[in-house]
Amino acid sequence: MRFPHLGRRFACMPPSPTRRTVLAGIGSMTTLAAGAATVLADGQQDDDARTGTEGENDGNGTDTESENSGNGTDTEGENGAALRVAHMSPNAPNVDVYVEDRKVVGDLAFRSVTDYLDLEPGTYQVMVTAAGAPEAVVFDESVTLESEDYTAVARGELNCDKTEFTVQVLEDQNGTVDDETARVRVFHAAPDAPAVDVTVNDGARTVFDGVERFTSGGYVEVPASDYEVEVRPDTEDEDGSVVFETPLTLEGGTVYTVFAAGYLMPDDAAADEPFDLVAALDRAAPPRGDGDGTQSAIATRGN
Predict the structure, then answer these.
(1) What phi and psi, each to the nearest 5 degrees, are found at residue 286?
(2) Which domain does 254 fall in, by range?
(3) Number of folded domains in the chain?
(4) Which residue from 99, 252, 263, 270 has the least number of CB within 10 angstroms?
């Protein structure tokens, strides 16, 4: 899919010899990209609050894929559908999202996730355009939603054949989680990264093994705690060299999606957007005590 009117900034650049060398030898890398995972806060994207969706499929952007491991006890969609949008395409501009020709998300930036939009189950025409430019259509497909929660992930790269931009719809699992447990999944949206293992606490536990680009590792349940998260190239023993690490707090009774987004090698990429982990809150734990019930989270489904 090519959009020459979007300009040079959004062109896909072939890997340079340097980039090929680094990726080929990623298993021996020792330099760490360190920092804190981006955790979006109550009703925000990176900057603003918007309504939206979440989703995953086999890569064609039209069919939804269930990730239900059988642990959720609630009916996530509560007899309706809910959709949010995650912008994880590092060389795409800010976007507007339309459902049945109605703009439901405006000026959504890279690394942003919207709130859920409640919809009736059914088939909807979903269109994504460059922000403020309705003629610059980058996605226009029908999406069928059941009585579930979904995330529509804008991923891939504009003007790239191998990592083509599309919208991938994931089925969320926002059922109840016990107070001492967090439910979490990872979605690999980094265009220049190989399959990865995700470990915690200096490799003490492998949480996700061999997550391929543009796929999810599915949901897992882990004890609520503070973790040091490590991203490594996929190896048989899950002991590859750490290429990114960051602290991440997972709270009990809560559901998260963590997006691996940006470029491992931004200097050789189509945009200067370095690799990061973006943690989005899918479902917050119920408020306790006499608090006001507000939660520091992005894209919360509710309780």
Answers:
(1) -60, 140
(2) 4-283
(3) 1
(4) 252
